[in-house]
Amino acid sequence: MADVRYTKDHEWIRLDGDVGVVGITTYAQSQLGDVVYVELPAVGKRLEQGVEAAVVESVKAASEVYSPAAGEVVAVNDALEAAPAMVNEDAEGKGWFLKLKLSDPKQLGALMSAEEYRRYVETIA
Amino acid sequence: MNRQTRPAEFGGSIPADTFTGNRALDIEEALVFEIGRPEVTGVDIETPADFSPRLGLLERKPGIGLPGLSEPEALRHYVRLSRKNYGIDTGMFPLGSCTMKHNPRLNEKMARLPGFADIHPLQPLSTVPGALALLAELGHWLRELTGAAAVALSPKAGAHGELCGLMAIKAALAARGEARSIVLVPESAHGTNPASAALLGYRVEAVPARSDGTVDAAEVEKHLSAEVAAIMLTNPNTCGLFERDVVAIAEAVHRAGAFFYADGANFNAIAGKSRPGDLGIDAMHLNLHKTFSTPHGGGGPGSGPVVFSAALAPFAPVPYLVCDAGGLRYVEHAGEAEPGAEPFGRLTAFHGQMGMFVRAMSYMLAHGGDGMRQASEDAVLNANYVRAGLQDLMSLPFGERACMHEVLFDDRWLEGCGITTLDFAKAMIDEGYHPMTVYFPLVVHGAMLIEPTESESKASLDLFIATLRDLAMAAKRGEKARFVNAPRHAPRGRLDETRAARRPVLRWTNPPPQLNEQ
Amino acid sequence: MRYLPLTPEDRTEMLSRVGVRHIDDLFADVPAATLRAPDLPPGKSELEVERTLAQMAARNMAAGSVPFFIGCGAYRHHIPASVDHLIQRSEFLTSYTPYQPEIAQGTLQTLFEFQTQVAMLTGMEVANASMYDGSTAAAEAVLMAHRITKRRKAVLAGNLHPHYRATIATVSAMAGDEVVALQPHPAGAGQHFEIDAETSCVVVQFPDFYGHLTDLRPIAEQARAAVALGLLVPPGECGADIVVAEGQSLGNPLGFGGPYVGLFASRQKFVRQMPGRLAGATMDAAGRRGFVLTLSAREQHIRREKATSNICTSAGLCALAFSIHLSLLGEAGLTRLARLNHAHAVELADKLAAVPGVAVRNGHFFNEFTIRVPGSAAAVIEALARKGVLGGVPVSRLEPRRPELADLIVVAATETTTAADISAYAAALREVLR
């Protein structure tokens, strides 16, 4: 099982070689409610760690999704355009947002493990 | 069977407790595209004598597909649709921050006088002295009520007025050789404030409120710097409270070389009582559709004149009126401005919402200065009466203090009931009320903002209070069905907004769009 | 005061229920020094208000009372009596933005119908629930083009309405965007657009300010009078990406410039970059079709400083008037109406061209064209007004800094223009120019 790391802003990133798959957590989607649209970046865009990478819209809110690490966008999940509900149904699987070719995989070391994130969510819930 | 009572042709179905789907006066109405036909028309138009068209090669091919209705069909279509709307004339509409006060029909009659309704914005000014006189009179009343030096009448709505005010501020700073980059906006502000500032390239910095729901002058002071162009403050604020530090805030803002923009959405609490100019504001828009009773019309048209202090007056946009010894002079181009004036530009093609100006003038003449003051006092009294009637059952986020023209509750009192602010609002619909504003301002959890306005009688308020008390007690008793299934008696039950946003159907098409598809 | 239901006794009782002695106790947070009565006259009876305002109105020369030929972005059309009756239905007039859709289906369904009508007329895929007016819609269209292309330069055709040009230029200058406004060319020949890597959009008006019908197919963008769309190729078919128009021509009076209704249409793929409200179809809890405001995550009340626009209202009631008028006309009526407008304009052009010294500048036009007169056009228009003829707009009213345009008048005719009006105009012009 590939290592998944988490941010305080409720993004996850799963490392697959030097490419990281990014999405929002199951907890985040539960807080947003029904996701109606995901605005994804252009493939080829370079993102710094912590900058806005995507926007996820529910009926009554729009939230920014920040890049968990620096890198170049090499793929986005086009399927979300027709089926944004996938974010609600499978946030940490089929509901992924984008793939990043990481400039510095070591950045992930500073993010939370699954267990640390679980405890973090407990503190804010 | 009447074509007009057929069940809808696309999407959805009509429950079959009647053959037609109608329920007495509540009649289902199809789309005009489902009942009209392109060859039908409700307007008889003469046929011109033969002539040679001069359209060149750009004549349109037939087949737009626009349906027409005969006159009786049209009347029925729109009258039936109108009956599915709740209006101020229907009942109490306590929508906080929106000021749903009585819309006098005299205003409508005056706006339709041919001398106002049937004049062209570009006919020679020599042929419209009465229109210019009306602009002058309106400007005089607005300046007197606000204590301002100048007024720009052309902004088309409140948010357009915000742009106007911020543009004047930007121009005034530029004239000083400064290009400041930050606008301060309290967290409780209307969304238009940060949106307007951002549109002009400003960085928006949020100012938190203190625990009593108002902005602390000392907190503002901390945010001020040589980079701050302006603060945008709504007063009374969106929590229904008067910003008691307003004078100190104005002084601090001015000391920092910045300007004070006031969002006048809630001016109806103090019109005729206190003049914002005396409180130190530099610019403020006035929503004629709120304080001055022009109709909301299902969401417009609005009208948002902006008043300016002497410091900003020279930068007001064209067109504007100059009243001097020579009489009225109308300035339509920057090049015609008087010495010292530097209009920042133009906001719209013509002179602003003249139809709304006439209505607002009619409202002000009817009230007079004394009536305006009485209206503000009654609006504040009514809101406090509602507060006093509900505060033991519902929770006030900032304690049991007096409010201005609207009272804000949060949802702490609903804790553990399994009922949300939205459920509570929908249950009010079943009781014959339009709900209050919900989930705004954002600074309060599950906000319920009630603005009764001065148009409600004591008897009306008593029934409203009794109804909300009954609902509140039912909620606390855990009678969930009355709330989560509401509204049960409206033309429609709760509508699926997720479906609407995920698969937007924004127009009718032929063949019809499929709503049932998932 | 007749609009205020509370009696003095009510007020006393209510103050005591609230727990204060005097109304000013509720204004305790307002600095006491500023609590003072305004210096304004006392209230008036309904009869007195009516008298005062009717006297003001009577000083204006109403369009319907004289031969009238003014256009330039606002047109005098006949409004069927049922339109004005229907928009004064309490439930349309006194309702609010449909935030509670269960009790606002009337407004929401009419908005959905309006959006569809606008999209059909303009030949576009989607339209919003309306903007303030044509000029502000044009400025919003430029901002939208900047968002889509991530470029910040707009090129404005020379024959764009000068006040639309100024409206766009003001917003652009203040927002830090670039605008290149080309020179007017009243003779109406094609114009070359310099489009570079920074250019986000080209703004073209059709028919243009001087009434010319230029084929937009080589370029793209922007319309004006909605009635013209009954007879002319829609901008959507010419490759426009955003179409805005002034919708006043249908259902709305001249009203000295407002309130009007801005039409705003675009392509489906750009819908999330559009400003303004959108109504959409959905279903209710019982499976019945209904309508809601949708895609609101674009808007200021949710997105705040990241919204597509700061706009918070539409032109609701004006859009309703537009929609009712268009439903009454239908395609058949609209086509006939447009044809009658054109016929009257052709007759007017021929009659004016026969006046010594007058030259019509347009080969092709719809219901509006430009004439050249000897000397000052503004003086000619003033002289005509003294004779009781409102003869058009001298271009110098809108372009005071271009002396080369000072002899031009833009003249319009609609279905309301009679043969007698046209003869009166020609005769008066003949006298003025003598």
Question: What layout of secondary structure does this protein have?
Answer:
The complex is a heterotrimer of chains A (125), B (518) and C (434).
Chain A: E1 4-6, E2 11-16, E3 19-24, H1 26-32, E4 35-39, E5 46-47, E6 52-58, E7 62-66, E8 71-76, H2 79-82, H3 86-89, E9 98-102, H4 114-124
Antiparallel strand pairs in A: 1-2, 2-3, 3-9, 4-6, 5-8, 6-7, 8-9
Chain B: H1 32-35, H2 71-82, H3 105-111, H4 114-117, H5 129-146, E1 150-152, H6 158-175, E2 182-186, H7 192-199, E3 203-207, H8 217-223, E4 228-234, H9 246-255, E5 259-263, H10 276-279, E6 283-285, E7 306-308, E8 320-324, E9 327-331, H11 354-390, E10 407-409, H12 421-430, E11 437-438, E12 448-450, H13 458-477, H14 481-484, H15 497-502
Parallel strand pairs in B: 2-3, 2-4, 4-5, 5-6
Antiparallel strand pairs in B: 1-7, 6-7, 8-9, 10-12, 11-12
Helix pairs in contact in B: 3-11, 5-11, 6-7, 8-9, 11-13
Chain C: H1 8-18, H2 46-58, H3 81-87, H4 90-93, H5 105-122, E1 126-127, H6 134-149, E2 153-156, H7 162-175, E3 178-181, E4 199-203, E5 242-246, E6 262-266, E7 279-283, E8 289-293, H8 300-303, H9 316-353, E9 359-360, E10 368-372, H10 377-386, E11 393-394, E12 408-412, H11 419-433
Key attributes of the depicted protein:
heterotrimer; A: 125 residues; alpha+beta; OB fold (Dihydrolipoamide Acetyltransferase, E2P); 21% helix; C: 434 residues; Aspartate Aminotransferase, domain 2; four-stranded antiparallel sheet; 11 helices; 12 strands
CATH topology of the largest domain in chain B: Aspartate Aminotransferase, domain 2
The H-and-E topology of chain C, N to C, reads as: HHHHHEHEHEEEEEEHHEEHEEH
Total number of strands of chain C: 12
Radius of gyration of chain C: 25 Å
Mean pLDDT of chain C: 93
- Strand tally of chain B is 12
The H/E string of chain B reads HHHHHEHEHEHEHEHEEEEHEHEEHHH
SS-derived structural category of chain C: alpha+beta
